[in-house]
Design a protein that fits this description.
Layout (H helix, E strand, L loop, with lengths): L12 H17 L10 H13 L1 E2 L2 E3 L19 E3 L4 H21 L2 H25 L19
Antiparallel strand pairs: 1-2, 2-3
Bound molecules: iron/sulfur cluster.
Iron/sulfur cluster (SF4) binds next to loops.
Length: 153
């Protein structure tokens, strides 16, 4: 099995190829009349969902038609894909968190320290992961589009 990313990454070439093959076979066995054409409104809604998933630090990978369940705590959320261009922003947030931690320590706010430490742990994990993935060639899955209208029988 050939990994296109580091061993910790989820996707590799074989997994993507097998999954796409599975989808193609399933589509071929499904009766054509079960496929309802998408109307323009549905497609627009689908596209808007992806626009709404753009957040400060990158792209949110939550599924279509779901809302954010985590009160936009993106740094702690497994759904965030950090945009490479936002790595300097992570550094800024880290500096800010460290300043807040120093204040919390001086004031004896132990609960605050615990929360900040957790956020710092997630921030550093995501930054390391983003740097690792930046060194790997991306897998191109293609762009979805509206299929041509089917002939009525
Ligand atoms: S917290 Fe998670 S689910 Fe919510 S917007 Fe951020 S990445 Fe998406």
């Amino acid at each position: 099995m050939e990994y296109l990313t580091s061993p910790e990454a989820v996707f590799n070439e074989d997994v993507v190829r097998h999954y796409q093959g599975f989808l193609d076979r399933r589509r071929q066995t499904r009766p054509l009349d079960e496929y309802r054409p998408i109307d323009k409104e549905e497609w627009l809604d689908f596209e808007q969902h992806f626009d709404q998933r753009k957040v400060e630090l990158g792209g949110c990978a939550r599924p279509y038609a779901t809302s954010c369940q985590h009160e936009h705590a993106c740094l702690r959320c497994p759904m965030i894909n950090i945009n490479l261009r936002m790595l300097p922003r992570l550094d800024e947030i880290e500096v800010d968190l460290l300043a807040r931690r120093a204040r919390a320590e001086a004031e004896g706010w132990l609960g605050e320290i615990e929360g900040i430490d957790l956020t710092l742990t997630f921030l550093r994990q995501k930054r390391d992961q983003t740097r690792r993935l930046a060194k790997v060639a991306p897998i191109h899955l293609g762009m979805p589009g509206l299929p041509p209208p089917r002939a009525q029988t």
